[in-house]
Every structure is written in C-alpha cells, then in structure tokens.
C-alpha cells in the first residue's frame, strides 16, 4: 500500500473540513495510506513569501526534512502548499549553492535537506499511484449528465518547470479525472486564468472582478458546477460568489466542489459525511444528479 | 648527422641595442660556449650585408646551425629561414631570438641585468640549436575536385565559382530539387525581386545571352561543364584525408529517369494519390508523383515513396509517353573522390508549435513567414492571393508576430537576424497587392541593419503598416466570428490591444537544418552551442573549420540574408580553390611522432587531439599503437602534454630541446631577484611578450621567456623540472579559453597547472609559485604585470627549499 | 550631473534587487510586454503592470516602486513567469520587491496579521478551539503539534520581521 505524509497546511484545517474529509476518505477507499506527522508548520505560501522569501524557502525545506526523516513522500491538498513545498524541493535538488545556503540555516534546528523525497499534489497521487482506469472502475455512483468545469488554479500548474504537474498550456489530467467519474468536462474561456483568490483582503474589488469573470465564463459554457483543487480558489468562488451577488447583483447558482468531493460522491461516500453544509453555495443540485 | 657547428649572429639594430646591452661581454660569453664556430655582429642580419654573411657562412661550410638575435623574429625569421634554405641548409636548423623586445627594451633601466639575461637567452638558443633536427617538407596529393553539400543559394554559388576556376564539382542536395529556402521564398529583400534571381551565378556558358544578371533558372547552371548534380541524395560517410576524401553518398530513388522525363505532366493527371503539399505549406494538395513549381533543377518529376502505391497502381507508368517512370528503381550508393568538402546545408524555421499559446499546431489561420511566402508567390498554391487557410476567404486583417522562438531563452536565445526584414517584406508586398488590407506587426525590436534596410522599414510605415511594440501573450479563436484575436500590450501606449486577425503570421527563429548533428559527426566537425556549424574564426578565417579541407558557407553557420550568403559562398569557394589549386598540399613535418615501444594503447591522445590526427592501429602482436597522420596533425603538441608515458613527441619541440632551453635560461641569473620562468605559447602568450616590449613596458630581467607551440604541450614533470632547474616561480602563458588557436590547449594547460599545484604542495613547495595566465597579443601590459607580480611573489616567499636526497638528488 | 546621479541610483537599486532572493533575473528583461498581457490584474487595473514595475526598477525608481500600491496587487498566478521568453522570474521578483518594501516600512496591514499568526501559532490562519472541536465531530484525527521552536529559530535565522501595521494601501 502506498504511504504518504499528508500535508494539510493551514487553510484546510481552519476552514475547509470538506476538503480534508473527502480527501482522507477517497484515498482510504482507493488504497493510499495517509500518515500525519508531527511538527509540520505552515508551508509559507505567497503571503509569507511576500514578507521574506528566504524564510519561506527555509521553512518549506524544514517541512520537507520532516518527511525525509520519516522516509515518506508528501501529498499536499492545497495548491499553495504544493507550490511552496514542490518548488522548494525542486530548487534545492537542482541548485547546489542554494542547498548549501539553506542547509546552513537548517543546521540550527538540527536538520539537513537531502533531496530524497517527492512532493506531490493530491491529483498527482490519483493519477500516478491509482490511475484513471482504476478510479473509473471504482465508481459506484457515476456523475453522469453532470457538467463540470475544471479549474486547476494557478499553483498546481505554474511555474511548470519546477512543478512538473501537467502541460501548463494544455493540461488534461483534471479533465480526464472528471470524465473518469462519468461526468462531462466542460471547456470554457480563460480556463487557466487566476480566480483572484490571493487578492482577497488586499484588493477585494479586483478579487471579485476576477472571480466574477470565472463565473461568467463557466456559466456561458454551460457548466453546472466548478471543480477546484485549492482552498483559496474554493473560497474565492464559493464565498466570493455570495459577495459577487451583492456587488454586481448577479446570481450564478454555480456550486463549487473540490475534485476530492466529487470523487467521494462518485465512490459512494455518504454525502452526510462530507461536511457539504460548509459550502456557501448549495450543492443540492449535484447531489440530486447522483441520487 | 654531422657534429653541430653553430653560427651566432648578433644584430645590434643600428647600434640601438648596444647602448643598453654589452655586446662585447655577450660576444666573449658566446665564444666560450662549446660548438660555437662563428660569431658575427652587424646592424641587422635579416637582409642586406648581414644576411649575406649568413649565406656565405653556410656555403663555406663554416656552420650548420644558425642562431640569430634579430628584431621582430616573428617576421624576420621567415625571410631568414627562406634564405637559409636557398643557401643549402634545412630552414629548421635556425633559431631566432629577440634581444630587443624581450630584453633590451623591457629592461633598459637595468642594463647590466639585461646583459646577463641576454647571455642566458643566447645560451638557450645555442643549446636548442645543437639539438635541432632537419625537418622535411611533405607533399600530399590534392584532388582538384570538391563536394558541396547543399543545393541552396550558397551551395550553388560556390559550385559556380569552383567550376569557373576549373575544379570538378559535385553538388549534392537531399531534396529532389535544388533551390533550398530560396525556391520557396519567392521574393528577397531589399529589392523584392525573385529569390532565385538574386543568386545570379554568372556562368560563361556560351549559349546564354550575356545580360548583367542571370538567375539560376536562366543561367544554364545545370549545363556547366565539370558540375555533377545529385539530388535526392545524402552523405552517409566521409573517409580519407584532406586533399583526398572518399565520400559515400546514398541516392534515394526518384523512380523517374532523368534522361527521359519531358515534364509533360500526364502522370499527375492519372495518379490517384493526393496528399497535402508540404512544399506549398499544405495549402493545396499534390499527387504522389510531382514536381515543384517554379522549378530550378532538375526539371524531372519525382515519386514520394511514402505514399505511392507502386505496382498496385502503376497508372503513371502506363501513361508516360517516354517510358520514363521506373517503379523498381533502387537506392544507389555513389562513391566520390574529392579534394575538399564544402558544407552549405542552410537553415530552417523553428517549429512554432512548441509555443502552445500561439496555437500554430491547431489553428489553421496561424501560419509562418515561409508559408505566407508560398501564398504571396504568384506560382504558389493560391496564385498570389492572401487567404485564410481555414475557409479560403480573403484575409484582410493580418497580424505578424516577431521573435517566435528567437531571443527566447527557452528555445533559441539568439536573434535570427533576418526575420524583421522578412516580415517587413511580406507586409509591404501584401499592402501593395491589397491596399485596404489591415496589416500590423507585433515586435520587441525592429532590426533593419543592412544596406537599404532602414528605407525598407520607412516605406513600410509610409504604406500604413501598423507597428505594435509588444510580444503577444496568446492567440485566441473567436468561435462566433471565426477570427483570431491577438492579445498584446502595446508597451509604448501602455494599452492592451485585442487585435482581430484573419491571418496571424509568425516569424519563427531560424535554426540549423535537419540532419546537422549527424552530418557534423560524419565530417568530424564541431557545432556551436546553438547547433550551427562552428566556423574556425568568423573574423580572421571565415568559412574555414578547424579541419583543413572542409569549408562552410551560407546559412549553415548562422542565419543570413541572400547577399551575405552569396558573399560567404564566394569566400568558401576561394578558400577551397586556394587549398586545391596546386594539386598538392605542402606542409612541413613539424608534427607529432609516437615511440611505438613506449605507447601503452591508452587512447588518451586520439581522444585529445582536436584534429582527429591520431588513430589507434593494430600492430602485428595483436596490440594497438597510436599513429599520427602527418597531414592532419597541426603541430600543437596537446597530445604530448597528455600522454602519461612520454611516448609521443613533437618534432622541433622535443622534450630534450625544451629541457636544454629551460636549463640554459635558468643557468645565469645576474640579477638580485629570484628567477622566474615564463613558458609562453607562440600564438598569444609569446606575442604578448613581444607587444609588452614593443610598447616599452618594464618588468624585471629575472623573468626568462621560453616559447612553445601551444601551452597544451607543457607536461607536469616539465613544470616540476623547471623548479629543479632553478626557477623560483613559473608562469605559463596561453591564449584565452575561447580563443585558443588549437582549440583545447589553453584549457588543458590550466588543468595541468592545477594538478601541478597539488603536487607542489605535497612536496612542500608553495603552490602560489606556479600560475597560469591567459591573454592576447595586445595585452602586453598584462604580461608585464604578471611578470612583476610573480617576481614579487617569489621574492616574498623567499628561496625555494628543495629537498635533497642522500644521493644528492633534488 | 543628472547622468551621474541617475547612474548611481540605477546601479544601486538594480543591484539591490538582483542580490535578493527571487530578484536575480531582473536585468534579463528586454521589455517585450508578454508579462503585461498575460497578467489578469493588469487587464483590470491600469495601476498594476508587471513590465512597468520591472522598467521602473531597472531605471532605479526605488521610491516609486517600493512605496506605491502596485507591487501589492500581484495575484501570484505565475502566468507571466511561465510565458516570459527571457525566463525572468517575475512573480518571484515581485516577492523580492515586497520583501524590500516591507523592510522599508511599506505594507498592507494584512501582512502584519499573517506574520503574527505565523510567529505565534505557526500557521497563517489561526485555528480556534471551536474548529478543533468540530474536527472531533467530523471524525477527523486531532491536529498534530506544530514545530514552533524550529519555526521561530528558522525565522529569526533568516531575518524574518513582522511588518508594522501602517496606513499604506488598501
């Protein structure tokens, strides 16, 4: 059985039990064991990188060391955690000088980055360790007739040289995974464009403009829901949808679900166990489709 | 060989030198050196009375070795050697040293010390002269024929020049038709006349009217005597040596007999196979049997074997009026014997589908400049109409995007140089043909540097072509209107534009032709980092490569426009002609030689030799030994510096000759400072010493200079030996890394210095006593500085403490 | 006179940025504008333009860059960095500029909150007792302890300082 150290980050345990629940349950069903390690800290995503990039990289390296010591690869659910840890991992593996610099700092806490583990996104674990075919075969409640707009978010795909997640201009793994559940993956304008999530709290106007664009484009293309990979994207489009409604006076009724949630539903997990009530935009329509 | 009788000729340069150096003391010193049979002093010895003295001494058999202290040895020694040869003595039994720029001038403030150094220099020259051997001149046959690989502008131009000069030329082209890129380009800037015309080889075929320019098509090119053209052919192997190569060529079957085809076109009317026409940017189809239009040569159809149904169909065979079609033709191997090879393989467009956001691979209305050229060409698939490939409708709004894959660190970091002009040409031609077309060019910089090019740019603006300073991020397809949208920021306006387009034309980077890597391996040539063939030195020796007998021309070294390619081709033809014209290659035997008893078959030297001059050959005892090809050997000595067993030596720079010089230079100090030995390569290092003297720079006289062909010849044991001989510090002076005249010597020397430093440390000698310097001829000041620095270092470190063993050995 | 002064400023701010983590590739930029048209924020707000920010930095307009609003508006989507033909690490460059700006005392107040949460709890977002209780209800395993000591040691070793809350920026 494949084992991974689960990196939860901060936002998911604080705000999105739905992501954590669906991820744990689906991976358990599909035969991947998740280990919770002690001492993981914040991954130091862009807001922290904006304060001090070097600190962020060192802290990311520290978290990687914990996994190295446990002999486990890391799986991250959040794009931000994935980007922060995977970028640090790739950069330190490649650049000897940088590694030496960071190891000097890590020595102060008795750690050394060795470059022995991989950092993967939840989706990569699904593709690499389980595979689209196996997932298809495990589906008990196909999401047929459900039109899903895939949204990768930014930090799963870019910067592609370091993340090596999928083709940054023509990604397809999320679309493949959506179809594996029996649903229809919808192409829409500016699929790869940012949702504005990180601008929330800095410039709410810009953030809402960008969120709205995504809602408009997915709606125009005929999508019935949007699937996300990142808690920030989720917030931007879910809570954001409510805010868009008040600012622009527009209703979209576009439920936002993490892929893990769709997966959980398709694998037959009881919706009651998925904390779906935490979604601001009701997911009833999706549940009706699979009933 | 007879006993050495050395004549020493001291030139005082019109008594200038004797004001600083004590010539009497020097003469007295030399008198007492064994084997010196004659000493003469004069104002100059490289011409006039002085030179006659040398000639007489040789003819009177008073001397059989010549040592001359003369001004500017690098120039004067040539004349002296020639004269010596005419007088009946082997010209390599001559040693010329420079007491002016290497002694009197740089040490004029310390004349006594300079004189002592002069004595050491003379002694070194004498001791070396004793050990010199006659060097023979070798002659190798040079066939008066050339192989030109590539039938584009450059190849054809070089072919015409060489046939005009009387050489036999074999022109081979991998495509079924000649013409290369020019045949597809239609028009060439800056004159906008037909691409084929600008090549204008001027042949003297009597049947053609002599007008001022003749295009290839009208020039009777294919009828030139001494020109053999092989199309549909590739080079698969090249063996032999410069002057005599054996080239194996694979000729793909054309399936149509060149001597019978009358180009009536009946075959295409019956051929059932229709495929997209690659030559015409897939804007139309062609049959399996086809010919390119306009045609350069040969005017013979060809069958595309990848799609033809052969005997399952054979309709064309039945319909051909001259029975020219032969479906059973097989690939043919052709062997040619040529004296030299000229590479003219040109370049091609970068595959723009790598830049996915431009959708070159999936939007039919996104095309490249070369594809647009086919549209603009009146002979082309659209008869000159500018259309949208997706629906065939006329394209009114056209947007060009420059630098696609060029100036791009992810793909090709260089600027391809010609694409701005190509796009301007196309934009102008479109505007001329369709005045109400809306044409924009998105650029990062507009580069129009050649003659007439700026006016071209001006005219484009006057025609109303729009310029947007910005590189687009993406091309979208507007599904409703069917148009393309180019998303770009005009940086000058600081405004985001969504340019609507019927047609988007990409100006892709120009990259090396397909098959370049393979060809480089076959020929033994190097490629630059960007994949183009490496010219030996673009400034000093354009179109040459590090291998004698192999030349490059045209776009194969870097993208160029037609006038430049033409010039380049003339240059390559000239070089080839010079190389072959006498029918023989003459070189002296200052080459490396292997002592086969010592050779351990380790394979270091064949791998190290930059010229591939050394090969391992089996001996009778089923063991291999290294052998040097005298024709290929360039006399650098890098192999000597590499051999772990001292099994290989370089004639005229033998280890015993070098030791003799070294010991002699270190045997007399006469200054208050520690002796420093500077081993300088004859290309850059030694010339830097020359220039420092010429410029009157000063450095101390304890610095003694020894010349070697290339710093790469220096061995670690020689460096250690220099310290044993009395040097308190050692400098090795070579060319700069990317300018080493023997490719790798300078860097190899550096590696040895690093190793020697480690060893010195182990022996308890301060590694700082040894240093490598890299400089060029005009950096004489660097030499003077380095000499000063090493002197100070050695002084500071104090005398060397060498360990003496019980047997008194150091 | 003007040239001398400008030269000194150009050298020093450009050098300052390139010597920073993330700022190393600043000078590779040749102002093609691909980043600008790739940027979702620039299309909506003309006060933010990544090409312009780089140009100002190259010209040494330190004050304008550091005290302005613009550098805080980047949404870190990395589209610019992905498409840049010169491989300029534009998004990382913005982090570097923010790092310098924060040290100079300019920052949106929200960063102060992030820093506090990080230094006190080891997370950017606080996790309340209520949330921890809810985990139990959902059947999720309790949260593991955060390596606070190591975190704070690393932060101090890398000179991480909490930004002051200022009036600046939205």
What does this structure look like?
The complex is a heterotrimer of chains A (291), B (810) and C (170). Chain A is of the alpha/beta class. Chain A has helices at 11-15, 17-30, 46-49, 53-70, 79-94, 96-107, 122-130, 132-138, 160-163, 173-180, 204-220, 231-248, 259-266, 284-290; strands at residues 2-7, 32-35, 73-76, 119-121, 147-150, 184-185, 225-228, 256-258. Chain A has a 4-stranded parallel β-sheet, sandwiched between helices. In chain A, strands 6-5-7-8 form a 4-stranded parallel β-sheet, sandwiched between helices. In chain A, strand 7, helix 12 and strand 8 form a beta-alpha-beta unit. The radius of gyration of chain A is 19 Å and the shape is globular. The two termini of chain A are 32 Å apart. In chain A, 58% of the residues are buried. In chain B, helix 12 links the parallel strand 21 (397-404) and strand 22. The relative contact order of chain B is 0.10. Chain B is 29% helix and 22% strand. Chain C is mainly α and 170 residues long. Chain C has 9 helices and no strands. The longest helix of chain C has 17 residues, at 2-18. Chains A and C meet through helix 1, helix 2, helix 3, helix 4 and helix 11 of A and helix 5, helix 6, helix 7, helix 8 and helix 9 of C.
- Beta strands of chain A, count: 8
CATH fold type of the largest domain in chain A: Rossmann fold
Number of helices of chain B: 22
- Structural class estimated from helices and strands of chain B: alpha/beta
Strand content bin of chain B: 15-25%
Mean pLDDT of chain B: 92
User: What is the subunit organization of this protein?
Assistant: heterotrimer
Give the % helix of chain B: 25-40%
The description of the largest β-sheet of chain A is: 4 strands, parallel
The number of E-state strands of chain B comes to 38
Report the principal-axis shape of chain A: globular
The proportion of strand residues of chain A reads 5-15%
Low-pLDDT regions of chain B: 205-212
Tally of helical runs of chain A: 14
Pattern of helices and strands of chain A? EHHEHHEHHEHHEHHEHEHEHH
Query: What are the low-pLDDT stretches of chain A, counting only 5+ consecutive residues below 50?
Result: none
Strand order of the largest sheet of chain B: 10-7-6-18-29
């Amino acid at each position: 059985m494949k084992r991974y150290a689960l990196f939860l980050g901060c936002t998911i345990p604080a705000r999105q039990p739905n992501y954590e629940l669906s991820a744990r349950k689906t991976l358990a069903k599909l035969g991947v064991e998740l280990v919770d390690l002690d001492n993981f800290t914040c991954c130091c995503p862009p807001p922290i990188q904006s304060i001090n990039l070097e600190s962020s990289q060192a802290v990311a390296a520290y978290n990687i060391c914990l996994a190295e010591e446990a002999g486990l690869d890391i799986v991250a659910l959040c794009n931000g955690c994935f980007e922060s840890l995977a970028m640090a991992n790739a950069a330190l593996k490649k650049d000897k000088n940088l590694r030496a610099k960071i190891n000097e700092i890590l020595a102060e806490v008795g750690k050394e980055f060795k470059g022995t583990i991989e950092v993967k996104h939840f989706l990569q674990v699904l593709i690499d360790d389980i595979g689209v075919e196996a997932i298809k075969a495990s589906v008990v409640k196909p999401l047929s007739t459900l039109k899903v707009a895939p949204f990768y978010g930014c930090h799963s795909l870019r910067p592609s040289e370091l993340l090596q997640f999928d083709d940054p201009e023509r990604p397809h793994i999320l679309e493949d995974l959506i179809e594996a559940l029996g649903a229809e993956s919808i192409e829409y304008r500016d699929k790869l464009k940012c949702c504005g999530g990180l601008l929330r709290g800095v410039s709410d106007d810009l953030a809402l403009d960008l969120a709205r664009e995504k809602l408009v484009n997915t709606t125009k293309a005929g999508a019935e829901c949007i699937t996300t990979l990142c808690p920030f994207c989720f917030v931007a489009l879910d809570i954001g949808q409510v805010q868009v409604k008040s600012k622009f006076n527009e209703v979209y009724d576009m439920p936002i679900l993490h892929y893990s949630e769709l997966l959980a539903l398709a694998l037959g997990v009881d919706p009651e166990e998925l904390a779906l009530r935490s979604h601001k935009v009701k997911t009833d329509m999706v549940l009706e489709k699979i009933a | 060989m007879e006993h050495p009788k050395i004549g020493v000729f001291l030139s005082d340069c019109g008594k200038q030198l004797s004001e600083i150096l004590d010539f009497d003391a020097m003469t007295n010193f030399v008198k007492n050196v064994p084997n010196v049979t004659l000493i003469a002093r004069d104002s100059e010895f490289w011409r006039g009375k002085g030179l006659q003295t040398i000639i007489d001494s040789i003819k009177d058999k008073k001397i059989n070795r010549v040592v001359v202290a003369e001004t500017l040895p690098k120039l004067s020694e040539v004349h002296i050697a020639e004269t010596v040869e005419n007088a009946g003595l082997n010209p390599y039994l001559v040693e010329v040293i420079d007491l002016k720029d290497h002694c009197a001038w740089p040490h004029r403030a310390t004349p006594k010390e300079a004189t002592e150094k002069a004595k050491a220099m003379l002694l070194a020259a004498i001791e070396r002269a004793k050990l010199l051997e006659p060097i023979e001149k070798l002659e190798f046959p040079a066939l008066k024929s050339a192989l030109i690989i590539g039938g584009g502008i450059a190849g054809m131009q070089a072919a015409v020049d060489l046939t005009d000069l009387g050489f036999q030329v074999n022109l081979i082209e991998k495509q079924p038709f000649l013409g290369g890129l020019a045949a597809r380009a239609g028009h060439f800037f800056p004159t906008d006349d037909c691409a084929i015309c600008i090549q204008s080889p001027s042949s003297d075929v009597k049947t053609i009217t002599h007008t001022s320019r003749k295009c290839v098509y009208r020039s009777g090119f294919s009828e030139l005597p001494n020109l053999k053209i092989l199309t549909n052919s590739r080079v698969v192997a090249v063996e032999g040596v410069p002057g005599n190569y054996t080239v194996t060529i694979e000729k793909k079957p054309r399936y149509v007999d060149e001597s019978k085809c009358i180009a009536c076109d009946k075959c295409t009317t019956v051929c059932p196979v229709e495929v997209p026409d690659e030559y015409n940017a897939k804007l139309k189809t062609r049959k399996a049997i086809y010919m390119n239009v306009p045609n350069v040569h040969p005017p013979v159809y060809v069958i595309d074997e990848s799609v033809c149904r052969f005997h399952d169909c054979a309709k064309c065979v039945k319909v051909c009026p001259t029975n020219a079609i032969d479906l059973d033709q097989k690939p043919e191997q052709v062997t040619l014997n040529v004296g030299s090879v000229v590479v003219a393989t040109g370049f091609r467009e970068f595959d723009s589908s790598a830049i996915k956001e431009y959708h070159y691979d999936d939007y039919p209305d996104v095309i490249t400049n070369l594809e647009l050229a086919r549209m603009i060409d009146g002979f082309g698939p659209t008869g000159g109409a500018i259309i949208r490939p997706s629906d065939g409708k006329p394209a009114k709004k056209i947007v060009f995007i420059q630098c696609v894959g060029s100036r791009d660190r992810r793909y090709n970091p260089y600027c391809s140089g010609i694409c701005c002009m190509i796009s301007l040409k196309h934009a102008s031609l479109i505007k001329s043909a369709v005045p109400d077309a809306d044409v924009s060019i998105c650029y990062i910089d507009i580069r129009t540097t050649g003659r007439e090019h700026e006016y071209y740019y001006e005219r484009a603006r006057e025609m109303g072509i729009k310029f947007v300073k910005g590189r687009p991020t993406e091309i979208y397809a507007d599904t409703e209107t069917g148009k393309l949208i180019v998303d770009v920021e005009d940086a000058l306006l600081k405004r985001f534009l969504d340019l609507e387009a019927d047609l988007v034309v990409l100006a892709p980077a120009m990259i090396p032709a397909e098959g370049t890597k393979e060809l480089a391996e076959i020929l033994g040539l190097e490629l630059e980092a960007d994949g183009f063939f490496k010219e030996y030195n673009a400034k000093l020796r354009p179109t040459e490569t590090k291998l004698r007998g192999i030349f490059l021309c045209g776009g194969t070294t870097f993208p160029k426009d037609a006038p430049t390619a033409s010039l380049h081709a003339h240059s390559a033809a000239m070089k080839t002609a010079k190389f072959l014209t006498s029918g023989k290659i003459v070189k002296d035997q200052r080459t490396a030689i292997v002592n086969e008893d010592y050779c351990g078959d380790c394979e270091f030297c064949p791998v190290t030799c930059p010229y591939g001059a050394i090969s391992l050959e089996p001996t009778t005892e089923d063991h291999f030994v290294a052998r040097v090809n005298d024709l290929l050997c360039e006399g650098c000595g890098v192999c000597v510096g590499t051999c772990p067993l001292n099994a290989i030596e370089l004639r005229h720079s033998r280890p015993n000759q070098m030791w003799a010089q070294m010991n002699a230079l270190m045997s007399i100090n006469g200054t208050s400072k520690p002796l420093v030995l500077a081993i300088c390569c004859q290309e850059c290092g030694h010339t830097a010493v020359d220039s420092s003297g010429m410029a009157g720079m000063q450095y101390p006289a304890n610095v003694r200079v020894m010349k070697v062909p290339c710093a790469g010849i220096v061995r670690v044991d020689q460096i250690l030996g220099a310290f044993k001989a009395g040097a308190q510090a050692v400098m090795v002076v070579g060319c700069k890394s990317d300018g080493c005249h023997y490719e790798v010597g300078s860097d190899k020397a550096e590696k040895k210095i690093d190793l020697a430093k480690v060893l010195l440390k182990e022996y308890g000698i301060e590694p700082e006593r040894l240093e490598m310097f890299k400089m060029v001829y005009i950096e004489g000041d660097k030499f003077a500085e380095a000499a000063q620095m090493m002197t100070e270092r050695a002084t500071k470190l104090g005398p060397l403490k060498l360990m003496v063993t019980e047997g008194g050995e150091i | 006179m003007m040239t001398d002064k400008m030269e000194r400023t150009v050298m020093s701010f450009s050098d300052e940025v390139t010597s920073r983590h993330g700022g190393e590739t600043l000078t590779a930029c040749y102002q093609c504008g691909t980043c600008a048209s790739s940027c979702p924020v620039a299309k909506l707000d003309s006060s933010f333009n990544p090409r312009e920010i780089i140009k100002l930095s190259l010209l040494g307009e330190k004050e304008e860059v550091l005290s302005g609003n613009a550098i805080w508006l980047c949404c870190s989507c990395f589209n610019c960095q992905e498409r840049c033909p010169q491989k300029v690490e534009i998004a990382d460059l913005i982090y570097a500029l923010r790092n310098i700006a924060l040290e100079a005392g300019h920052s949106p107040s929200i960063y102060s909150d992030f820093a506090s949460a990080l230094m006190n709890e080891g997370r950017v977002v606080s996790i309340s007792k209520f949330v921890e209780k809810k985990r139990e209800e959902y059947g999720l395993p309790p949260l593991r302890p955060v390596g606070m000591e190591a975190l704070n040691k690393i932060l101090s070793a890398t000179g991480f300082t909490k930004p002051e809350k200022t009036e600046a920026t939205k």
